[in-house]
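Record pair follows.
FIRST:
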Amino acid sequence: MGRFQIVKLDRDGRSRGDIGSLGRVPGAFARPKGIALDRQNRLYAVDAAFNNIQVFTADGQLLLFFGQSGRGPGDLVLPAKVALDYDNVKYFQQYADPNFQIEYLILVTSQFSPRRINVYGFGREKGRTYLTDEEIMKERAEKELKKQNDQPGKTGMLIRRRTDATR
C-alpha cells in the first residue's frame, strides 16, 4: 500500500501485480489501509477515505464493497484495519436472522468512532443457491459486453463511412 493500490508480493518480496489505483470509483482507492485474505483467497481492503471495505477476487477483480460513513451501527469513521474470524461465529450467530447462517466474521476498526470495532457476518441465507465468484464475474462481463454491443459506437460509424466511401 502507499501508491493508492495494493501491491501483491511473493515470499521473496518481488512484485506479483497490484490491485486498484487512485480514483473515486468502486475498485479504486484514495486511502487504502488494512487488508485481509479469506479462505477462498478473496482480498478485503479497507479504504479510510471512502469509509468502506472492498472485496476482490483472487485475481484482483472487484467482487463487492460495503460500509459507509456515519456514526450509527455498522457505520465507519476512518477505518484502519480488517480481520477475519472463523472461530468465534457461535457468539454472533444469535444476533443474525434465524434463516441466515454466518460462515465467518469480518471485524473492522474505526479510528474515530464511538464504535471502534464493527463486526459483520458473512454467510448465506438457508435454502438459497448462490453463484460462485467466477459465475458472478462472468455474468458481469457478459452484461458489459451486451451493453457495449447495444450502443452504437465509433466502430460502427467508421464501418459505415468506409462502406460509403467505397461506392
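SECOND:
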Amino acid sequence: MSVVKNGLLKKGWRLAASLEQSDYFHNTISQAISTSFKFFYNKLVNSVLYQEDLYTIGEAQMKKEDWLLVYLSLPSADNKSYIDPIRIQKGLFLFRMQNEDKVKDKDKAKDFYEFIPYLYGPCSLDIYDDLRELQQQGLVSDRPRDYRGWTYYTLTSEGEKKAKSLKGQDPNRLVGDLESIKERVTRLSFLELLQVIYAEYPKFAEESIVREAALNDVSGGVGV
C-alpha cells in the first residue's frame, strides 16, 4: 500500500471512528453512516490512486474513456467522420446494456458509464467530461455547433493511433459488437433512434422532451 493511500485511509477511518464515538451520533444511524462512509471513502481512494474505473472484460482492463475512443474510431453507416453527441450517448448505452452479461466481475460494470433518463433518453454526463478531456489530450477534435447547438466529434491522427492500439486489448472481441451498434445507431434518423431506444428501454424515456406523438409519426416503423 502506498504512503499516500495509507495516509488517506487513516484519516478517513479516524473520521468515521470519531462519528461512532460522538454523543450526538452514538446510535444505530451513526453506525450506518460510518459504515457507508468507510465503504465509499475506500472506493474513492482506490479510484483516484489506482484508477479502478475499469470495465473488466475477460482479462482486458479498459477504462470507460478507452471504449469511447474505440467507438469514435469505428465506421458509421453514413460514412461521415464526425458523429453527434446523441449517437455517441446511445451507442455506448446500448453497448453497456447488451454486454453486461460478458463482464467477468459484475461489480465492474458499474464502473462503466452510468446512464440516467434525460432530455433525449439515456444520458451519461461523464461522456461529455471525457470528450473534453480527450480533446485536451489532442486525441479528439470537434467542429462548430449546428443549428441545434450540438457539437460533432471525431478522432485526430493521434486518437486513431491510440484507438488502434486499444482494439488489441479485446480478448472477447467486443469491438465487433460495438461496431455493429455504431452501424445501427448511425443508420437511423434521430427520431427513429429514439423510438427504438424508448421501445427497448422505456424507463429511460421518462424525462424525454420528445413526446410520444412525435415518435409515433415516424412513418413505416423502424427496422432494428
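COMMENT: DSSP finds nine helices and six strands in the chain.
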